[in-house]
Amino acid sequence: MSKFDLHEQNNNLQYFWQKAGKYVVGLVIIALIAYGVNTWWNSRNSIRAADAALVYEAFTSAYNSKDANKVLEVSKELQSDYSSTEYATMATLLSAKMSWDKKDFTQTAKSLNWVINNSKDVGMVNTAKLRLADIYIDEKKYDKATKLLLEKHDPAFDPLYYSKRGDLYLVQGDKTKARDAYKEALKKAGQDSSMSQGIQMRLDVLGNN
User: Fold this and answer.
1) Is the model's pTM score more than 0.85?
2) What angle do CA 75, 78, 84 make, to 5 degrees?
3) In whole angstroms, what is the distance from residue 55 CA to residue 158 CA?
């Protein structure tokens, strides 16, 4: 390689760093910052998950002891401090069940709505919606129940949603709509005998009239 070629190459490198050097350095700095943030975030999430697990242990202890006040207190702590974890969702659903068993439907609805609005778990959200529909049906809030049961949901929950619609139409006195909903639920249940048996029983009670 001639001296002229070396000199030209050196000039090209200098030109590159003058024009693009700051940009490249900026990219490297951004990449390093992103790596650091990601590492910090993963570490932070691991610590929070571990902390949430400890709080959830206190929750399960209270739940097993049927201490309703403590259950509500700890579930609210998980909602407030660890809302992004599954522990918060699981605790809130169990808290809702305990409130339901005690016929405190107002608190049950609050807990279920929290799950619906905050959980990222599709299964738990759909479960909460179905339970909330039960409350609306019991309280004769049929418009709210209808709206909830007609919302977009995971297809895996089709049998349960159609079955619940059947329950809603039945208490409203519309046996035709109830029967149609149960039939659709039965179709969606497919080969799931544990689910289809309950739906078939509803249809049998309704009869063909």
Assistant:
1) no
2) 130
3) 34
DSSP sequence for 49-102:
HHHHHHHHHHHHHHHHTT-HHHHHHHHHHHHHH-TTSHHHHHHHHHHHHHHHHT
For the chain, the domains span 10-121
**Residue 157 contacts residue 126 (beta carbons within 8 Å):** yes
Question: Given the structure tokens 């079955």, which residue do they identify?
Answer: 163
Reading phi first (left if > 0) and then psi (alpha if -120 to 50, else beta), residue 104 is in beta
Asked if 49 and 85 count as a contact pair (C-beta separation under 8 A), the reply is yes
Cα separation, 126 vs 115, whole angstroms = 9
Q: Given CA atoms 140, 142, 143, 146 in this order, what sign does their dihedral have?
A: positive
Number of Cβ within a 10 Å radius of residue 40: 10
Task: Tell me which residues of the chain have a pLDDT lower than 50.
Answer: 2-7, 9, 13, 15-17, 20-21, 23-25, 28-29, 32-33, 35, 37-44
Q: Could you tell me which of 173, 108, 97 has the C-alpha nearest to residue 136?
A: 108
Question: To 10 degrees, what angle do helices 193-206 and 175-189 make?
Answer: 160
